[in-house]
Structure formats: C-alpha cells, structure tokens
Amino acid sequence: MAEDLKLMRTWSSPYALRVVHALKIKGLEYETVLEDMTKKSASLLEYNPVHKKVPVLLHNGRPVCESLVILEYIDDVWKQPPLLPQDPNEKAMARFWANFGDDKVMPLTWRVFTSEGKDQEEAIGPMMENLKFLEEQLKGKSFFGGEAIGYTDIAFGWMGNLISILEEIIDLKLVDEEKFPLLSVWINKFSDDPVIKECWPPRDKMVEKFKVIRERYLKQAP
Question: What is the DSSP string of 124-144?
Fold first, then answer.
C-alpha cells in the first residue's frame, strides 16, 4: 500500500520545520499544505480541533498533531535511520531535553526577543543558565544524540536558524562563541547539514516577519 503523507504547516513555523527535517532525514515523500493562521482552514480545524495549530501530519488520512509527538510517530513507523536512541534511558533523556527546550529555552529566548530594558535584562540571566545545560550535553559529541542528527537535535533545530535572526534584529549576541563554544559549533553543524540546509525558509523574509512581531510586542508592553 502506497503511503499518503501530507504535512499541514506554515512557511515559517519552527515547530513545523521539525517535521520537515524528520521527513527529509527519513527520505519520505510528502505533500505540503500551507496554512494561513489568520484564516484557519476547515481542514486544519477538522484535523486539529483541540489546538487549532500547525503542524499536522496526515498519514493515509489519519492526523497526528504536535511536533514532538509527530517526530516520535515518524520514528515508530519508519525505523531507518533512527531518530531516538534504542536504550530506554537514553530515549527518556532525549525526550527530557526536548521538553526542556520547549518549556524553558524557547520561552526565555522569546522573552528576551520581545522585550527591552529591565524586562529583557531579567530574562537574559535565566536564558544563559539554560544554555549552560545544553552546552554540557554536547561535551564529547557532535550532536545531542551522538554523531548523527537525531530527535533532540531536531527538537532544538529552531536555534540553528532562528537564533541568528533574533540576534540580528535586537543587536544582541544570545549564543556567544566564547561562553558556549560547543553549542555554537552545534548550531553551525546542524544548520549547514545538506538535508537541513535546504529546508530553511528565506532569511530575508524571516527577518522581516520577526521584526514586525517584535514591534507588535513592544507596543503592547505596559
């Protein structure tokens, strides 16, 4: 039976890019369905009625939602090359660090980006503390999972593209090469991987989009 894969996403969503990266690494063919999140389609509301967000992966018409869940689904269905480790402890830790990224690293990075002055200064310290944990995880390894891109790398993949864009917009170095040499090397290795590199959205459009987002947040600040 032929596999019918469709990915509902936006052109810029870092969460959806996780799924794009996983599908590319697995060598899977799929159809892209681009969504406008200001005018959510009936299909998106049908397939993800709870969160009403992208990404949504449709596999033979059956939806899977939430990017990290989708990554595990892809790895369960298509075994090679593996994204998650086989060892139960290592697999659990990969999930732990992926959740750490979504729960801690990304929100603080976003707070630094969407604020200024005292609010921004208060967010920088905790953000740097979290980056220290990532630096520690990369000791003796090329990637979080070892010598090949895996689940945790894909989960943190947004950093490979978005960090430098945010740094450019706010004129502030978030991942300093001297403070975080291993993380800096990882960002370059991940973002320059041929399979990953071809998936990045146009940088100029990303800069333009995120400038507008930052300006909107700053206008709303008390």
Answer: HHHHHHHHHHHHHHTTT-SBT
How big is the chain, counted in residues? Answer: 222
Reduced 3-state DSSP string for 167-197: HHHHCCCCCCCCCCHHHHHHHHHHHHCHHHH
**pLDDT tens digit string along 71-130?**
999 999 999 999 999 999 999 999 999 999 999 999 999 999 999 999 999 999 999 999
Residues 6 or more apart from 150 whose CB is under 8 A from it?
Answer: 82, 83, 84, 85, 94, 143, 144
Output the pTM of the full model: 0.95
CB under 8 Å to 74, separation ≥6 — which residues?
19, 22, 23, 26, 28, 57, 83
21 touches 152 (CB < 8 A): no
Contact between 98 and 182 under an 8 Å Cβ cutoff? The reply is: no
Q: Are 134 and 156 in contact (CB under 8 A)?
A: yes
pLDDT digits (tens, 9 = 90+) for 138-183: 999 999 989 999 999 999 999 999 999 999 999 999 999 999 999 9
Phi, psi of 64 (to 5 degrees): -130, 130
**DSSP summary character for residue 146:** B
Burial class (CB in 10 A: 0-12, 13-18, 19+), 154: buried
What pLDDT shows up at residue 2? 63
Average pLDDT over residues 195-203: 95
